[in-house]
Design goal:
Blueprint lengths: L11 H12 L14 E8 L6 H17 L4 E3 L27 H13 L2 E11 L2 E9 L5 E6 L24 E4 L2 E5 L8 H8 L5 E5 L3 E2 L1 H26 L2 E5 L2 E4 L14 E4 L3 E3 L5 E4 L6 E8 H10 L21
């Protein structure tokens, strides 16, 4: 509501009436500022070689390829600039980390702007001397940095020695406003925790991305490989169902020994990254499915009207008993 002040003019009262009527017209945002009802999401499933520079250039090219296929939002795999170096503990590898903003994030921002896409990219962040994070950066289609998410859950398993390199995230779970609406991103080991998906969805995210680097220990693949992949895929489809959101999970492919410019894990070790990237709708239906061994770009349509319809029929967020969940902050309830 606004007030019209009377001024003398040759149009007299008619002029004042027009001004008053205009003041009471509702003000709506420009159409271009509204989040789209539909957009295309893309996952870049790729292999990674010994050269960080070549991996970055490959990723930038793939972002362009995804955009040419109609993608509006693109997500790259976890730590795509190198082979997965956490297969051993090596202080020299901290030199791979960069600040954000920094040289790599500037190139990624330029790619987002050039191709007019929202881009999610996983980076090894140097926050301060001795403090490093496994971080996902979100760039809007104008190249602006919408924010960062620092990986919250840090694993420490054979050939996944991430606690040596990464400080646990301290920014919490986050949803980012972009030209495609609100999107959230978590990172790899976060995918096993329903709390992270829930807290991100509660902030309004309608699409959750999980940049990932996960694979089989070759000696275990025959016995456990199928069950491991099925568990990984199932829990993330469950995040989509429980929260009524789209979920995009992007992994790398190929056998790696953590080779970074010739510096690699000891002979005999290595991981076979299982690819299998996918996009799920809020009903848990897989809209796009990647292979276990090929580089590819997966795309699927994100439709806000379908999301609304699914949430109306499965109103899990409505029926939550938020008055009864306080004990969830306990490690165990003894």
């Amino acid at each position: 509501m606004c007030t019209a002040y009377s001024t003398r003019s040759r149009r007299g009262a008619a002029n004042l009436l027009n001004v008053t009527l205009l003041c009471y017209l509702p003000i709506y945002p420009e159409v271009e500022d509204l989040a789209p009802e539909k957009f295309a999401a893309a996952l870049v499933q790729m292999s990674c070689g010994p050269s960080p520079e070549e991996n970055l250039e490959k990723a930038l090219t793939r972002v362009g390829n995804a955009a040419s296929k109609g993608a509006n939002v693109v997500c790259l795999p976890e730590l795509f600039q190198t082979q997965y170096f956490c297969q051993r503990e090596d202080h020299a590898l901290f030199d791979l980390a960069e600040p954000i903003p920094g040289p790599s994030s500037e190139k990624l921002a330029a790619a987002a702007k050039k191709h007019g896409v929202v881009l999610v990219a996983s980076l090894f962040e140097k926050r301060a001397p001795g403090v490093y994070h496994n971080t996902a950066a979100v760039f809007d289609r104008d190249g602006s940095l919408r924010g960062i998410y620092r990986k919250m859950h840090i694993p420490d398993d054979p050939l996944y020695y991430e606690k040596f390199y990464f400080t646990p995230g301290d920014l919490g779970f986050r949803a980012f406003d972009t030209d495609a609406g609100k999107i959230g991103t978590l990172v790899c080991w976060d995918q096993w925790y329903p709390e992270g998906a829930r807290l991100t969805a509660l902030q309004g995210a309608t699409l959750l991305f999980y940049p990932t680097a996960i694979g089989w220990h070759p000696a275990e693949k025959a016995e456990f490989g199928e069950a491991q992949y099925d568990a990984w895929r199932t829990i993330q489809r469950a995040h989509a169902i429980a929260n009524g959101v789209y979920v995009g999970v992007v992994n790398r492919v190929g056998f790696e020994t953590g080779n970074v410019r010739g510096n690699e894990a000891k002979a005999g070790d290595g991981l076979e990254f299982w690819g299998g990237s996918f996009i799920s709708d809020p009903f848990g239906r897989v809209l796009a499915q990647g292979s276990h061994d090929k580089e590819e770009i997966l795309t699927a349509e994100v439709d806000m009207r379908k999301l609304e319809d699914i949430r109306r029929n499965w109103p899990f967020l409505r029926d939550r008993r938020i008055d009864s969940y306080a004990p969830i902050t306990s490690r165990l309830i003894d």
